[in-house]
Amino acid sequence: MMNIIILIIFGALVGWVASLLVGGRKGLLLDIIVGIAGSVIGGWLMGFFDKSGVTGFNVYSFLVALLGAVVLLVIVKAIKH
After folding, report:
1. Choosing a second label site near 31 at 20 to 30 A (CA), which of 23, 25, 38, 48?
2. What is the pTM of this model?
3. Which domain holds residue 57?
């Protein structure tokens, strides 16, 4: 149960920072979704560089997830416009 709460908090933080960087705040629920999806996308992208993805609640994982979340938001923004 604690892991789910940490995942939600981590996703919310990552999604919030990514939405501040890219623009277009949509609310807490979407920040959580963007943050969790960003973790998956960031881990996938880091695999191309033979680096590890999200490994826990730490600065490296935050940056990896943030990279993925920003990529996701930029793609969504480009498709919408």
Report:
1. 48
2. 0.88
3. 2-80
